[in-house]
Write a structure and sequence with these properties.
By secondary structure, this protein is of the alpha/beta class. The chain is built from 16 helices and 15 strands.
Length: 475
């Protein structure tokens, strides 16, 4: 297996990636500002870089130190607190808990470290002071700004010229700035806002300062990959690099990975425009594997259009894969489970080819679209094998099911055994009907039990009665 290749936004090239040492990867992913539930656009980087981490750990055998910050003090939090009357700390705690509940519901591996910004303010003060001492920052009326013109390499990540930087991104205006591009490192306290002591008076850190300090605190010199959405490339990530390099940390991170934006109706999803849907609401309608499949069905660097049709297509694909696994599992341990034929041996031998192709797809800049295609092709061949004269060869089928699950694992699919999952109350209701049908059959009330089966069939749910119980799949 050769080195994995990832597109590095810093060099604008796809490059071989290896850990900086000891088979351990330092991964930093920008986390949430916890003033509200996150929307489905925010879910994309969460899932993309969860898959990257899973692949590193499960297929590459690397250990990953995954850091994701929680911004629990920010203008948005302060504004929401003013609107609702809920104190900032309570507001942040409530939505932080909701965020980690969502990660669990999305089958996302918990970060190794999830530092809160408010827990590291003294370190941020020290860094700002060091930037002032080196001439890269200045104080003005209690605020502290980074002096952009003092760093010749500023703009290297985004490739923006100064005039583009002013016109193309949020730039905080202030008469105290030497240059409109200078960005805030420390904000002087206003009445009623959270604040901490500093050499420049009471205040709070700027957003761009937070991620520099936290990545250094938890990753040290093992800063391999910094990841986030395209919308963070400028000014946030650009400003992170500027601060770090001004303090002599070059490179700040070796690789910068950015996912494309999620759009709805052809426009970028954003709470500010009201053009969004909460992630928790989508998970109430679709099962987690459908949601994950939907996000992975387009290359992570390309834009993704959110549509119900896309989710339904992913739902159908997942249900078919789940149905195949359920059928094979239901037949496990039968009288003919040890039957091995020549056709079965040939089919089992072909499985290595599928695994190799899956790995090739994932190694080439995390091409989950092609990887999902390999899963579908393996499922199709397995269906053909099951329909052939060699269909009684259970060991070969079990090997195919094992491989499907092994390939699904880094994608966050097929992580639990059992029947296909449905969104919301769908699966529990079907299970309840199956229990009722089983009771009716035991009472020999076959007309009623057949009526349940027929009505479920009309709804696209196919029942299969076996010696080990009844399984169900979607047609």
């Amino acid at each position: 297996m050769g080195p994995m290749r990832l597109y590095n936004s810093l060099t604008r090239q796809t490059e071989p990636f290896e850990p900086s040492g000891d088979h351990t990867v330092g991964l930093y992913v920008c986390g949430p500002t916890v003033y509200d539930h996150i929307h489905i656009g925010n879910v994309r980087p969460i899932l993309v870089f969860d898959v990257l981490r899973r692949y590193f750990e499960r297929y590459k055998g690397w250990s990953v130190t995954h850091v994701q910050n929680v911004t629990d003090v920010d203008d948005k939090l302060i504004q929401r607190s003013a609107e609702t009357g809920e104190p900032v700390d309570r507001l942040a705690a409530r939505y932080t808990e909701a965020y980690f509940d969502l990660l669990k519901n999305l089958h996302v591996l918990p970060p190794t470290h999830s530092p809160r910004a408010t827990e590291h303010v003294p370190g941020m003060v020290q860094m700002v002071k060091a930037l002032i001492d080196r001439g890269f920052a200045y104080e003005a009326n209690g605020d502290v700004y980074f002096r952009v013109n003092a760093l010749a390499s500023y703009g290297q990540l985004s490739g923006r010229q100064p005039e583009q930087q002013v016109a193309g991104a949020r730039v905080e205006s202030s008469e105290d700035k030497e240059n409109p591009l200078d960005f805030t490192l420390w904000k002087a306290a206003k009445p009623g806002e959270p604040h901490w002591p500093s050499p420049w008076g009471e205040g709070r850190p700027g957003w761009h300062t937070e991620c520099v300090v936290l990545s250094q605190a938890f990753l040290g010199d093992r800063r391999d990959i910094h990841a986030g959405g395209n919308d963070l490339m400028f000014p946030h990530h650009e400003n992170e690099i500027a601060q770090a390099e001004a303090l002599g940390q070059t490179p700040f991170f070796r690789f910068w990975l950015h996912n494309g934006m999620l759009s709805i109706g052809g426009e970028k999803m954003a709470k500010s425009s009201g053009n969004f849907e909460y992630a928790k609401d989508v998970l109430s309608r679709y099962d987690v594997e459908t949601v994950r499949h939907f996000y992975l069905s387009r290359h992570y660097r390309k834009p993704l259009e959110y549509t119900e049709e896309g989710l339904i297509s992913s739902q159908t694909a997942v249900r078919r894969l789940r149905g195949l696994l359920a059928d094979i599992d239901a037949e496990r341990g039968g009288d003919d489970a040890t039957t091995v034929g020549e056709a079965g041996e040939a089919f089992a031998a072909s499985l290595d080819r599928y695994r190799a192709r899956f790995v090739d797809c994932m190694e080439e800049d995390l091409n989950t679209v092609a990887a999902l295609g390999v899963l579908q092709e393996l499922a199709a061949e397995t269906h053909r094998f099951r329909a052939s004269a060699a269909s009684q060869d259970r060991p070969a089928q079990q090997k195919a099911a094992t491989l499907l699950r092994a390939m699904g694992e880094p994608l966050g699919l097929f992580l639990s055994e059992g029947k296909p999952e449905g969104g919301g109350l769908e699966s529990p209701l079907i299970e309840m009907l199956l229990e009722l049908r089983d009771e009716l059959r035991q009472k020999r009330e076959f007309a009623l039990s057949d009526q349940i089966r027929d009505r479920l069939t009309e709804l696209g749910i196919v029942l299969k009665d076996t010696a080990h119980g009844t399984t169900w799949t979607y047609r």
